[in-house]
Amino acid sequence: MTHHPRGRHALRTCATALLIAAATGCGISTTGPVQAGAPATGIPQPGTQTNSVRIYFTDPYGPRAITRPTDQPLDPQHALDLLLKGPTPAERERGLTTQVPPPTGRLTATTTTGTVDISLPFEVASDLDVTAVSQIVCTAAHARIPGDRPATQVDIRIHENNIRSAKPWTVRCGPNGNAMPVID
To answer: Are the beta carbons of 158 and 169 closer than 8 angstroms?
Structure first.
């Protein structure tokens, strides 16, 4: 079998070109770090703006926090009132819903330093699922509460059927947006 001289020349040229490309690298110079200015700034973390409220709705994966702009920081009662109104049309388009049923009475929230007492107009065991409880608890915990505690450290005391005389049960909003019992 004989090889055509032009074919060998083309093969050598191709091999040479590959060697040169491999030897020169990817074109990045060997300079060290270069100062480029101040750190990036931009969109703040959701719910950290002073004139916004964080409300918890749901999607197929569980509770989801949304941030709505407000004229002023809202207390838990006002935040829960917004939760009870449900998602806006734009939020519904994004797949957000609520598991909190329309209350048959008034859902009220009162605050003291680091604590929110919520009186529910229904029984949790028969009227609410765990996602609805998380929506209520986390919405209240992320509202403006005296004491400057992080939302995960705010005690939420739940009073069922608006009965203040019965012993409430205490929960907190976990870092993933789910209500967690407080173990004494």
So the answer is: yes
- E strand or H helix at 109, and its extent? strand 108-112
Dihedral angle of Cα 116, 131, 73, 46, to the nearest 10 degrees = 130
**pLDDT tens sequence across 140-156:** 999 998 877 899 999 99
Are 174 and 165 spatial neighbours (Cβ–Cβ below 8 Å)?
no
Residue indicated by tokens 């032009």 = 6
* pLDDT the model gives residue 160: 85
pTM of the model: 0.71
Residue 57: closest CA among 139, 122, 128: 139
Question: Which residue, chain included where needed, has tokens 């229904």?
Answer: 122
Kindly give the residue spans of alpha helices, DSSP state H, lying in 29-181.
Answer: 76-85, 89-93, 124-127, 130-141
Helices (H), the chain: 5-24, 76-85, 89-93, 124-127, 130-141
